[in-house]
Design goal:
The chain contains one helix and ten strands; from the N terminus they run αββββββββββ. With about 110 residues, the chain is mainly beta. The protein has a four-stranded antiparallel beta sheet with strand order 1-6-5-4, with no helix packed on it. A two-stranded antiparallel ribbon has the order 2-3. Strands 7-10 form a two-stranded antiparallel ribbon. The radius of gyration is 19 Å and the shape is elongated. It comes from Equus przewalskii (Przewalski's horse).
Protein backbone atom coordinates (compact mmCIF):
# COMPACT_ATOMS: atom_id res chain seq x y z
CA UNK A 1 0.00 0.00 0.00
CA UNK A 2 2.83 2.41 0.86
CA UNK A 3 4.50 1.68 -2.48
CA UNK A 4 1.26 2.55 -4.28
CA UNK A 5 0.86 5.80 -2.36
CA UNK A 6 4.50 6.70 -3.02
CA UNK A 7 4.04 6.01 -6.73
CA UNK A 8 0.94 8.18 -6.85
CA UNK A 9 2.77 11.01 -5.09
CA UNK A 10 5.63 10.85 -7.62
CA UNK A 11 3.13 10.76 -10.50
CA UNK A 12 1.17 13.72 -9.09
CA UNK A 13 4.39 15.71 -8.72
CA UNK A 14 5.44 14.85 -12.28
CA UNK A 15 2.03 15.87 -13.68
CA UNK A 16 2.15 19.16 -11.75
CA UNK A 17 5.61 19.96 -13.12
CA UNK A 18 4.51 19.11 -16.67
CA UNK A 19 1.24 21.01 -16.50
CA UNK A 20 1.63 24.03 -14.25
CA UNK A 21 -1.88 25.22 -15.16
CA UNK A 22 -3.39 22.78 -12.61
CA UNK A 23 -2.40 21.84 -9.09
CA UNK A 24 -3.59 19.77 -6.13
CA UNK A 25 -3.57 20.58 -2.43
CA UNK A 26 -3.74 17.18 -0.69
CA UNK A 27 -5.96 16.73 2.34
CA UNK A 28 -4.44 16.04 5.71
CA UNK A 29 -5.31 12.43 6.47
CA UNK A 30 -6.09 12.05 10.14
CA UNK A 31 -7.01 8.46 11.10
CA UNK A 32 -10.63 8.15 12.19
CA UNK A 33 -11.49 11.64 10.91
CA UNK A 34 -13.96 11.54 8.02
CA UNK A 35 -13.40 14.45 5.63
CA UNK A 36 -16.32 16.84 5.26
CA UNK A 37 -14.50 19.94 4.06
CA UNK A 38 -11.26 21.23 2.52
CA UNK A 39 -9.17 24.23 3.53
CA UNK A 40 -7.58 26.29 0.73
CA UNK A 41 -4.29 28.19 0.85
CA UNK A 42 -6.08 31.31 2.14
CA UNK A 43 -7.50 29.33 5.09
CA UNK A 44 -11.05 29.34 3.68
CA UNK A 45 -12.96 26.08 4.18
CA UNK A 46 -15.09 24.59 1.41
CA UNK A 47 -17.71 21.82 1.75
CA UNK A 48 -16.90 18.36 0.43
CA UNK A 49 -17.80 17.92 -3.29
CA UNK A 50 -18.09 21.69 -3.83
CA UNK A 51 -16.74 23.77 -6.71
CA UNK A 52 -15.79 27.45 -6.83
CA UNK A 53 -13.87 30.04 -8.82
CA UNK A 54 -11.01 31.98 -7.19
CA UNK A 55 -10.16 35.67 -7.50
CA UNK A 56 -7.27 34.65 -9.75
CA UNK A 57 -9.71 32.92 -12.14
CA UNK A 58 -8.96 29.33 -11.18
CA UNK A 59 -11.72 26.73 -11.01
CA UNK A 60 -11.33 24.60 -7.90
CA UNK A 61 -13.08 21.62 -6.38
CA UNK A 62 -12.97 19.84 -3.01
CA UNK A 63 -13.15 16.04 -2.77
CA UNK A 64 -11.89 13.31 -0.42
CA UNK A 65 -8.35 13.69 -1.83
CA UNK A 66 -8.11 17.47 -1.33
CA UNK A 67 -8.46 20.58 -3.48
CA UNK A 68 -7.84 20.54 -7.24
CA UNK A 69 -7.51 23.84 -9.10
CA UNK A 70 -6.99 24.67 -12.77
CA UNK A 71 -6.37 27.94 -14.55
CA UNK A 72 -9.26 29.03 -16.79
CA UNK A 73 -7.56 32.01 -18.43
CA UNK A 74 -6.21 31.87 -21.98
CA UNK A 75 -2.95 33.85 -22.06
CA UNK A 76 -1.90 35.59 -25.28
CA UNK A 77 1.45 34.20 -26.42
CA UNK A 78 2.09 35.11 -30.04
CA UNK A 79 1.76 38.85 -30.69
CA UNK A 80 4.00 41.85 -31.31
CA UNK A 81 5.32 42.49 -27.78
CA UNK A 82 7.20 45.60 -28.89
CA UNK A 83 4.16 47.37 -30.29
CA UNK A 84 1.47 45.77 -28.09
CA UNK A 85 0.76 44.83 -24.48
CA UNK A 86 -1.61 42.39 -22.79
CA UNK A 87 -4.13 43.70 -20.27
CA UNK A 88 -5.93 41.40 -17.82
CA UNK A 89 -9.60 41.97 -16.93
CA UNK A 90 -10.31 40.47 -13.47
CA UNK A 91 -14.09 40.67 -13.92
CA UNK A 92 -14.17 38.63 -17.14
CA UNK A 93 -11.02 36.57 -16.43
CA UNK A 94 -9.68 37.38 -19.86
CA UNK A 95 -6.83 39.20 -21.59
CA UNK A 96 -6.98 41.69 -24.39
CA UNK A 97 -3.97 42.78 -26.40
CA UNK A 98 -3.81 46.46 -27.34
CA UNK A 99 -1.34 48.87 -28.87
CA UNK A 100 0.92 50.51 -26.29
CA UNK A 101 0.59 53.96 -27.92
CA UNK A 102 -3.16 53.67 -28.59
CA UNK A 103 -4.95 51.31 -26.14
CA UNK A 104 -8.18 51.74 -28.10
CA UNK A 105 -6.70 49.66 -30.94
CA UNK A 106 -6.46 45.89 -30.50
CA UNK A 107 -3.54 43.87 -31.78
CA UNK A 108 -3.73 40.55 -33.63
CA UNK A 109 -2.83 37.47 -31.56
CA UNK A 110 -1.75 34.30 -33.34
CA UNK A 111 -1.45 31.98 -30.33
CA UNK A 112 -2.91 31.50 -26.87
CA UNK A 113 -1.78 29.33 -23.95
CA UNK A 114 -4.31 27.64 -21.70
Amino acid sequence: MNALLGSLLVLATFVTVCNAQCFVIPRENIPGNLPNECKDLDGVTHPMNSKWKTKSCQECSCDQHGISCCNTVAIPADYDTTKCEKIFNEKTCSYKVVERNDPEKTCPVSGWIM
